Amino acid sequence: MKISGVFLDRDGVLNPHIPGGYLLSADELVVLPGVARAVRRLNDVGLLVIVISNQQGVGKGLMTMDDLIAIERRMEEALAQEAGARIDRCYYSTELASANSPRRKPGPGMLLEAARDFGLSLAETVFAGDSPTDIQAGHAAGVGATVLLLSGGTASYAAGDMTPAPDHVFPALPDAVDWILEHLA
Length: 185
Ligand SMILES: [Mg+2]
Fold this sequence. Notes:
The chain has about 180 residues and is of the alpha/beta class. It has a single domain, classed as HAD superfamily/HAD-like (Rossmann fold), CATH 3.40.50.1000. Helices cover about 35% and strands about 15% of the residues. The protein has helices at about 35-45, 55-60, 65-85, 110-120, 130-140, 175-180; strands spanning about 5-10, 50-55, 90-95, 125-130, 145-150, 170. The chain has a six-stranded parallel sheet with strand order 3-2-1-4-5-6, sandwiched between helices. Strand 4 (about 125-130), helix 5 (about 130-140) and strand 5 form a beta-alpha-beta unit. It is globular and about 45 Å long. It starts with a strand and ends with a helix. The site of magnesium ion has 10 residues, from loops. Magnesium ion binds near residues 11, 129, 130, 152 and 153.
């Protein structure tokens, strides 16, 4: 498969999923094991690495946009320090779910926006996330492959659990990166 870019959900993929809550402060950020090295491996083969994240906590007034950007900066520092890894850009939907924004996952809006910004053909991208809404958003955008990771809010997966079904399921991001690197055309 020709792959030019990899979209990653944030919570449950790069940092731990917080059940029923939000990562509100950079001081609480933890990067999951092996993630920095995995991102570095994507960087090293020239794939764009783009984060696509719903952050309704801003819309709810639980945190500010500055808090969200501070978390992003801390993530960048952590990835760089641990493995010299780099994220090319982060996209957030801070709208409330009730606003039904097409940007908010399961809508495809952020993926379409990122593809436009970077001149990516969506068929040449992979979207990896830990929840059904990630798979739905990827499917709606027409990404080349959707990947469910079991490192966050979804602990297990069996056929029929999700509609649409993910194209691939892996324990965590490093396993997905192994697959991506083995299947680059
Ligand atoms: Mg998530």
